[in-house]
Specification:
Order of helices and strands: HEHEHEHEHEHEHEHHHEH
Structural class: alpha/beta
Helix content: 40-55%
Strand content: 5-15%
Shape: globular
């Protein structure tokens, strides 16, 4: 089964995103992550490449995906990036994925690393998507930005590019983290009117640590609603309170989104299995009810 097929079986898909361990990390840390998410039964798990263009499509992502599939029986969605990859790189990696029977991929432009050479073959995600579609063996997911890509000149231009990207062969979209459900609903209305009718999952990132505040605040194009900003301001000096408030905020977002009929939730869990467990416990009955009943 591939990611696109899950949406044919479920009204609300529930998935996680994790990242490979750093070379300096202890092996036990990723073992805890894998064991922790396995018991939560996500529909699939996406595995990122290194941040900042540090890893294009390295062994860490591939090996983690293989473990998820073979040892835990979890469908992996493998990130494949374009901006520093030439055709021979992509071809070799696709052969590895095919041999490992992993055919669900998330095609991204990727972060630009100033220390790496830019690709001649793939400058945009759409270039990579077209190449993957021509290959014919892969189920292609892509990313979208509900509040507009920070490099886009306008929301209209961003929507035009998203439509072009989807038309190259995308079967499913995952959104960037979104803290405003209202903004996502307005985005969904625009994309449906533009003729983009494939499933779109909402990206949810629970803010449970102060370091995440700094990280998300640096991302252009992400709006912070008044109630979210109030929560951060009130509890940023108390780790326990911030974690509880962040989990509650993400839970409320998910319940509202799923109850409103979104195609699914993609939880940016930052390898924090305790946070993922608490949120999953909070929302699983709601998701199950939507999937089991005509509502």
């Amino acid at each position: 089964m591939e990611v696109s097929q899950i949406f044919k079986q479920k009204k609300a898909v529930y998935s996680f995103e994790i990242f490979p361990p750093k070379p300096t990390s202890m092996l036990e840390s990723i073992e805890r992550v894998l064991d922790g998410i396995a018991c939560l039964n996500p529909d699939y798990v996406s595995i990122t490449c290194g941040a900042g263009g540090s890893e294009v499509m390295g062994n860490a992502t591939f090996n983690l995906a293989k473990r998820l599939k073979n040892e835990y029986g979890i469908l992996p969605l493998v990130h494949v990036t374009a901006i520093h990859s030439e055709k021979e790189d992509i071809i070799a990696y696709l052969e590895e994925l095919n041999e490992a029977d992993m055919h669900s991929v998330l095609a991204l432009r990727g972060d630009i690393n100033p220390d790496r050479k830019l690709s001649v073959s793939f400058r945009y995600a759409s270039d990579l998507i077209k190449f993957l579609k021509e290959d014919g063996r892969f189920d292609i997911s892509a990313a979208c930005c509900p509040e507009g890509h920070p490099e886009s000149v306008s929301l209209e231009a961003d929507l035009d590019y998203l439509k072009f990207k989807v038309d190259q062969g995308v079967t499913h979209l995952n959104s960037q983290m979104c803290f405003s459900n209202g903004n996502f609903y307005r985005f969904l209305d625009r994309v449906r009117k533009a003729g983009i009718n494939i499933p779109i999952q909402v990206g949810i990132m629970p803010i449970v640590k102060t370091v995440q505040i700094e990280r998300t605040m640096s991302l252009a194009g992400v709006e912070y609603p008044a109630d979210f900003s109030k929560m951060i301001y009130k509890h940023s000096n108390n780790p326990e309170a911030l974690a509880a408030a962040g989990i509650a905020y993400a839970t409320e977002q998910i319940i509202d989104l799923v109850s409103s009929g979104v195609d699914g939730i993609h939880l940016y869990m930052m390898n924090n299995t305790e946070t993922a467990r608490k949120i999953t416990e909070n929302v699983k009955s709601v998701i199950r009810n939507v999937n089991e009943n005509d509502v």
